[in-house]
Amino acid sequence: MPNNYIPFIIAYFVLPVLSISMLLIFIRLFKGPSLMDKVVALDLLAIVAIGSFSAYAILYNKPIIIDIALIIALIAFLSTIAFAYYYEKADKEISKSEDENSEK
Amino acid sequence: MKEIFVIFFLITGAVFILIASIGLLKMPDVYLRMSASTIAATFGVALMLVAAAIHFMTLGIIFHIIGVIIFLILTVPVGAHLMGRASHIIGLPMWDKTLRDDMKGKYNKKTHQFSGMNEKSEARSGKSEVRSEKFE
After folding, report:
1. pLDDT value at residue A97
2. A20, A54, A76 ranked by CB distance to B52: nearest
3. Which of A19, A63, A82, B54 is 20 to 30 A removed from B84 (C-alpha atoms)?
4. Cα–Cα distance, B8 to A31 (Å, whole number)
5. Are B20 and B36 in contact (CB under 8 A)?
6. Do both B56 and B110 map to the same domain?
7. Which residues does residue B107 pair with via DSSP β-bridges, in sequence order?
8. Residues B19 and B70 reside in one and the same domain
């Protein structure tokens, strides 16, 4: 038996499970019926990336990798909010232009 | 002893993330997908970061990881709430077996103002309703 179990657990269980879940999320990302499904899938993809970065930080024994996790969390939050805001705003503009057309 | 905790938290977090992605794939509806993915994945990632904190066991890294977890717990529900609000306003369909929709008819379809937020918004939405009635 190996002296240190953690790299074996990460390499043979944690990272394969995370890759399988990333594969499932990519299926939803390509299949998603509406744009909002794709945005939800992108958000979840960023969260899974944070988890795999923390697993890599344990595997390589370098705590600086957790900084990357923080930056990815920030970017995922900003992109989600931007997608939701502009998706809602596009609908507002469309209804407003329909209103103007009906006025004419 | 430390290794056992690290391995336990890592495996539990990975299984939670797998459950979240299966829920994202199999749920029938945008809102249900959002619910399944957000809650379980945040909990799984928090567990994996706790595993990293136990493994390194330095004060600076522990506070750093606590900061990341608090940031995730604060921001992921905010993003999910915005996505749910936008998809309800756009009018994405719900599941056939949905029992009730509490947000239906609570906001103006044109200005996206919710009723009962304050008097000014109510007055504005009422004015626009009058205008739309006149044109109809």
Report:
1. 73
2. A54
3. A19
4. 34
5. yes
6. no
7. B114
8. yes
User: What secondary structure does DSSP assign to A19-63, as a single string?
Assistant: HHHHHHHHHHHHH-SSHHHHHHHHHHHHHHHHHHHHHHHHHHT-T
B57 and B76 belong to one structural domain: yes
- The answer to whether residues B80 and B34 touch, using CB atoms and an 8 Å cutoff, is yes
Its domain, for residue B121, covers 103-136
In terms of CA atoms, which chain A residue is nearest residue B18? A21
Average pLDDT, chain A: 88
Tell me the residue range of the domain where A62 lies.
6-103
Q: What is the CB neighbour count within 10 angstroms for residue B110? A: 16
Chain A residues with CB under 8 Å of B25 CB are 24-25, 27-28
**Complex-level ipTM:** 0.87
Listed ranges A26-35, B7-16, B99-108; the one with the highest mean pLDDT: B7-16
Model confidence at B66, in pLDDT bands (50, 70, 90)? very high
Q: Closest chain A residue to B93 measured between Cα atoms? A: A34
Q: Is residue A1 in some structural domain?
A: no
Residues of chain B with C-beta less than 8 angstroms from the C-beta of A68: none
How many CB atoms are closer than 10 A to CB B60?
Answer: 9
Q: pTM to 2 decimals?
A: 0.83
Look at A44 and B14 and tell me if their CB atoms are within 8 Å. Answer: no
| Per-residue confidence band for B98, with pLDDT thresholds at 50, 70 and 90 | confident
Q: Mean of the per-residue pLDDT values for chain B?
A: 84
The answer to whether B77 contacts chain A (CB < 8 Å) is no
Q: Interhelix angle for B59-90 vs A35-60, to 10°?
A: 170
CB contact under 8 A, A13 and B24: no
